[in-house]
Each structure stands twice: as structure tokens, then as C-alpha cells.
Amino acid sequence: MSNGWTEHVRHEHVRYAGSVTPRTRQPVSRRERPAKPALSRAGIVEAALGVLRAEGLEKVTMRRLAQELDTGPASLYVYVASTAELHAAVLDELLGEVELGRRGDDWAEALIAVLVSYTDVLFAHPALAGSAVSARPSGRNYLRLLEKLLALLGEGGVPDEQAAWGVDLLLLAATAVAAEHSAPAGTEDWDATRQAVENAPAETHPRVRALAGPLLSGSAEERLTWHFRTLINGIRHTPVPKGEPL
């Protein structure tokens, strides 16, 4: 016959055994761990987009993505040769947001609408705008944008050679505008520029002083569309020099 204390201890052990958390953690076999998704270029670019939106372009590095994907940086270079190529791939993915739908019957206005949409995409990602000046996208979305621009220039009767050179100029101008306006400039900087133009001495800078109003006039949207119209007109009427092919 067991004593009362032994029975009490046995009873309490059974009562609480299911709720007691063991102090030591049992090792988990590798076979029981969830398998990591296989690396791919598309997966790396998707992870880069997530880091871009959450932390900014400066954090989109091979080392940071390796942490995000739980792998080593060397593994990523199998799919992406460099950080510059990675940024170009990210840019190409964002180019899928450019609106290519037709607006109205005028081909030039439709072309401007596409270019404005392209600029807006870069405005939405300020850090990428500066990188886009030198980035060379080559993916499906870049080709889609290029095809649309060439088609609209062709619709306007622009000769093929001029259209081919012209799209590069149009995209470069749009990218430069986005990069300029995406730079971190405060209100004081712009005020200083305005005051410098308005107060330029007439004796030494007569043209600047006389044209201070026009120099500072117009909204950003008005100036942007005027830039594009000017470039389009120039592309239409400026033949490509004949020489050796590139």
C-alpha cells in the first residue's frame, strides 16, 4: 500500500504532464525542415523589388538579397552577373507599370502620354531614377515599351532611322527629368535658384534678367510635355547622318 504523499505526487504529475514545456529543445532533422524554394532569376528580381520598396535602392545589394533568400551571395551570381545588372532587371520589371494604352487619335499626344507615364514610374521610385540614367534594361517590358514608341513614331510618318535614334533620345530625356526632380533638394535650394535668376545684375547678365519670368514660368507638367513635343518635332525633321552602321 502506497502512502498518501506518493499518490499525490503521482496524481499531480499526470495532471500537469501535458502542459509542461520541456526545458531542452529536441533537435530537428534536416529532412523535417521545410525546403527552401529553388533560386531563380525571377525570384531574385522579385526579392529585390521587395527590398527596394521597403528599404530603398541602396539596400538592393547581393549581400542583402542573400539574407532575404537565405543563401550565400555567391549563389546569386549564377543568375545575376552584377549589382548593375540587378538594378537593370529591377528597372525592367517596373517598366511593366508604364501605361501603353492609346489616348485619343493624335499619335504625338499618345506618344507623349506614354513618355509621361514612363516618367511617372521613375518619379514613384526616386532612388531608381538616378540609376536609370546608366542602367541598360533588356527584358520583356523594355522591349514592349520600345515597340510601342517605335510604332507611334512610325504612325506619325517618322522615317525608320530617325525613329530608331529618336526613341533613345526620348527615353534619355524622360529619365534625366525624373532623375533631376527625384534628387533630394529642399525648398530653400529652389528659392535660392529663383532669387539668383530674378536678381541677376542687368549690367552683366542682361538676357538672364530680361527673361527671368519665362525662365521660371510654367508647371512641371507643362514643361515636361513641351520638352517631349520639341524633341518629337526635332526627330521628325532631322535626318540621321549617313555613315558606318554601329
TrEMBL record:
PROSITE patterns: HTH_TETR_2. Residues 38-98 form the HTH tetR-type domain. Keywords: DNA-binding, Transcription, Transcription regulation. It holds the Pfam family TetR_C_1. Gene3D superfamilies: Tetracycline Repressor, domain 2. Residues 61-80 bind DNA. The keyword rRNA-binding does not apply. Residues 17-36 are annotated as: Disordered. PANTHER family: HTH-TYPE TRANSCRIPTIONAL REGULATOR RUTR, TRANSCRIPTIONAL REGULATORY PROTEIN. This is TetR/AcrR family transcriptional regulator. It comes from Amycolatopsis acididurans. The lineage of its organism: Bacteria, Bacillati, Actinomycetota, Actinomycetes, Pseudonocardiales.
